[in-house]
Amino acid sequence: MRIRNLIHKTILKSISFAVVLILAYIFIFIQIMRYEQQYEFANIFNAFYWVISTVTTVGYGDIVFESMPGKMFSVFVQLSGIPLVFAFLFSVVITPWLEKNVHSSLPTKTSRNLKEHIIICGYNKLVETLIEELNEDDIPYVLIEEDEELIKKLLKRNIHTIAGIPSEEETLENANIYTARFVIANRSDEMNANIVLTARKLSNLKIIAVVEDSSNKKYLKYAGATSVVSPKELYGRFIGRKAADPFVRRLTGATEFFEGVSIVEFPIYPKSPLIGKTIRNAAIREKTGVNVIGMWKGGSLSFNVMPEDIIKDNSVLLAIGTTDQLSELRKLTQRLE
Question: pTM of the predicted model, to two decimals?
């Protein structure tokens, strides 16, 4: 991961700096000893011994300078030794220990036996429904996430998740990209572009990119995405359908997002039992199995649906699920018996 590589580079730089500084101190020590004509101490072994004991502020006092330049050099080495030792200690000992213990509880690799699977980069409600369908059809998958708290919650729910930055080669390799069916890039447009570029560099598999701004579709195509899906563009196809006949008995206006999973707009009609209830109290997911991923609020479409949002008679819900699940929600929104 990027953070881990950055830490390793920092440690390497700290060690290199410490070694160069110690070598410089050894050279200066020898030159000052020769200047003071203390030739018995003017060698590498005594120099190394004096530098280490002085840098660590131990200072045994068996080798001392007599001249003013030598004494000033001793003071300088002692003062520089404090930050040098602590910087080295934090870089080489404390930081790696913390990194190991913080990430030790989070899986960063999937099983090498996982093959013909789907790699999903990024979690949200859309992915929630997709994962349910994959589980029902026994299709293997692995989800890549960066948020440690979210990863822990997903693992508790037995959602196959690994920690990592999906735009990095190491992470995709840890997700077994070479044996995967395809990759779904479901992050920001900028991150998705990096994911697509990295995935395409590693493999010729199918890559599906979910784009936030439809104007960026062409860039993701240039990056190497096999197909680009714009949820907002799909949602927009359903806006304005409140004039639809509420007594139509079949499910209409469905657009397939992934195989077996569709997105539908549901206007709320006057006799719907959902009117006046919050999203939480309506318990739509519990009753139908669908996920509400968008709703018209205050004349604008919001994809940030909160549990306390109230469903009104002029609301329009955007939901994702299977045909059967969506049909159940249609009954609630139109109160069809």
Answer: 0.52
